[in-house]
Amino acid sequence: MYKLPALRTLGTRVAASCLVALTILSAAAAGAAADPKQVLVLNSFGRQFRPWSEYAKSIRSELAELAPWPLDITSYSIVSARSGSEDPEIPFVEYLKAYYGDKPPDLVVAMGAPAAIFAQRHRERLFAATPLLFTAVDQRFVKQSALTTNDTAVAVDIEIRPLFDNILKVLPDTKLIAVVSGDSPSERFWVAQLQKDLKPLESKTQITFWNDLSFDEMLKRAAALPKHSALFWPQLRVDAAGVVHEGNRSLEQLSAVTSAPIFSYDDTFFTGDTVGGPMLSMSEVSRSAATVAIRLLSGEKPAAIETPPVGFATPRYDSRQLRRWNISESNLPANSEVLFKEPSLLEKYPTEIALVTAALIVQASLISGLLYERRRRRIAEADSRQRFTELAHINRRATAGELSSSLAHELSQPLAAILTNAETAELLLKTNCPDLKEINQILVDIRRDDHRASEVLLRLRQLLRKQPLKPTSLDLHETVRQVLEITAPMARQHGIDIREDFSSVPIYVQGDAVQLQQVLLNLIVNAIDAMPRDGETVREIVVRSYFLRDSAEISVADSGHGIASDLMDKVFDPFFSTKPEGMGIGLSIARTIVIAHGGRIWLEQSARGGADFHIRLPAG
Fold it and tell me: Binning pLDDT at 50, 70 and 90, where does residue 596 land?
């Protein structure tokens, strides 16, 4: 056995590495002129049998990197290991001796258990004085008693129990484990070893061995395994039908049809077909074997080189197999490595994602800023509309104040008539024979005068309402007439005639009746105020409404003195007024209302010399 304490193992490896380095440096100067070193490699079964084929490639690569001199490596396969017959071995030994003639190889490397058994069996006849290195072989196959002073080993320690404990940990519900093995002598040895070491697990799970089956039968059973099963793949060399299985094809076929996950012990089988677990590391074994080989080729005595057997490396698992069998990573040992993970988008495109993220952050910041500004603008607009509504309401009250005397006069007439009629009716009722027909006529007059007074108050109340813009479909002629009825008393009081000139067909617009009436009220009151009082000029206001293409147009023209041409562009400015007592907000509010309705308002000089205001609104 080669198990050593950890401290001694570490010290041995460090010393060996230092010694190899010194050996390479000392031999480098003479290396160019020296003959190639002859290395004989004995392969087990054949050159393509895993795992030894992969170990052989890896050791060759390590030797090429470490050797300071040229190497001549010749490989042969121990094909007799397939059947266990020793009959062909003696002629093969003699062939090797004849091949190398009087110059034996500088080093013999036995790769795998069958090659190690062959080399030890024929050690006396197989270049007894040549250093012999056993590698990629479990320590059970290296007979310590048969080792000579020219022999050394870089063996492996395959602990069986941890391999199956790993299966039960990763798949705790496992009820059956099938061991896929062949029927060659070394495979029969391993089956016996597995049966012995796994006896304590019989109470936990059923373990069955397929070494007595052909590979075709193995495939059928693998495809029909019950739920909660697993396969263990030590390696398949020669099945019970005598078929030799080289390469990795048999494992690939098994993986393609199996209904249960496959586990193994060596990372040369960790190629996408097995789940993983504790495994021998090919790179670690190859590096250690190549290091010892260089020391032997440099002249160091084999008996002086003690190399502890290489055990399992850190458990590794294939994420593709974990996904295939729905195995949670939480079931894996704490120090495990999970390989072959599908890279995330961040891992695939880090630069692109960083740029997109930065762009999104900038865009989000801009959008947030714009939304904030939009909210502030909406608040400001709402506040502006509220203030405008309040200002327009104040303007309507101010205009109503100007109409108050004429409205009072307008109301006094129906009220006086009502009083006179009421007194007359009272006198008639006191007579002995009241004239009921006359009294009935008096009541009709009272009702008419009351209705007339109510209409005046209702129109004034509607005008003075305080409310936000509420667009509806309006009959433009009716809207204008209501304003004319309100302003008629004031016009009569000032001796002004208001004439209407409407189109013969109805005109409809979308708008707020109160606000549009306020615009007209401002224009008509301003026209009344603008009339001269000289008694000579015709005092007249003409209000027109008509279609113009797809628009409705209203004009208010007076026969006053008009507005000076240098002031016409200023009349709609806030706080500008041609009247000494004017506030200068009426026309400004009128323009704002018209624009809010999607229209426009402008001033022209009337043909009669007065002012002619025009309002154009979308028809509809």
Answer: confident
Please state, in angstroms and as integers, the Cα–Cα distance from residue 201 to each residue in 163, 189, 196, 278, following that order. Answer: 12, 20, 10, 18
Question: What is the average per-residue pLDDT within 129-140?
Answer: 91
3-state secondary structure of 73: strand
Residue 276 DSSP label? E
Q: Which residue, among 177, 108, 111, has the nearest Cα to 148 in the 3D structure?
A: 108
Contact 292, 335 (CB under 8 A): no
Q: With 90 as the cut, is the pLDDT of residue 38 above it?
A: yes
User: 497: closest CA among 532, 538, 544, 534?
Assistant: 538
Which CATH architecture describes the domain 160-279+312-342? 3-Layer(aba) Sandwich (3.40)
Q: Rounded to whole angstroms, how far apart are CA atoms 66 and 80?
A: 33
Q: Which tops the pLDDT comparison, 178 or 607? A: 178
What is the reported pTM?
0.55
What residues have CB less than 8 Å from 205, skipping those under 6 apart?
A: 168, 174, 175, 176, 177
Summarize the confidence of residues 213-221 as an average pLDDT.
Answer: 95
Distance CA 592, CA 590 (A): 5
Short-list 448, 446, 452, 456, CA closest to 419: 446
DSSP string, 190-232: HHHHHHHHTGGGGGT-EEEE-TTS-HHHHHHHHHTPPSSEEEE
- Phi then psi for 119, rounded to 5 degrees? -65, -40
Q: Which fold has domain 6-156?
A: Rossmann fold (3.40.50)
> From 3.30.413.10, 3.30.565.10, 3.40.50.720, 3.40.630.30, which CATH number describes the 469-620 domain?
3.30.565.10
Q: Which H or E element spans position 374?
A: helix 350-430
**CA angle, residues 268, 270, 273, in degrees to nearest 5:** 125
* Residues 54-77: tens digit of each pLDDT: 888 899 999 999 999 999 999 888
Tally Cβ neighbours within 10 Å of residue 20.
19
Instruction: Write down the residue that tokens 């224009």 correspond to.
Output: 523
Query: How many residues are present in the chain?
Result: 620
C-alpha torsion sign, points 146, 148, 150, 153: positive
Q: Hey, is 142 helix, strand or coil?
A: coil
Which has the closest alpha carbon to 191: 232, 243, 137, 252? Answer: 232
Of 294, 215, 292, 299, the C-alpha closest to 258 is 215
Strands laid side by side in the 107-111 sheet: 71-78, 37-44, 107-111, 132-138, 151-156
Could you give the CA distance from residue 576 to residue 525 in angstroms, rounded to a whole number? Answer: 16
Cα(485)–Cα(407) distance, integer angstroms: 11
Helices (H), 470-605: 476-493, 513-530, 586-596
CATH number listed for the domain at residues 371-466: 1.20.120
In DSSP terms, 547 is beta-bridged to: 552
Domain pair 371-466 / 469-620, same fold: no
Category of 127 on φ-ψ map: left (φ > 0), alpha (ψ -120 to 50) or beta = left
Q: Give residue for tokens 């409404």.
A: 545
Domain ranges of the chain: 6-156, 160-279+312-342, 371-466, 469-620
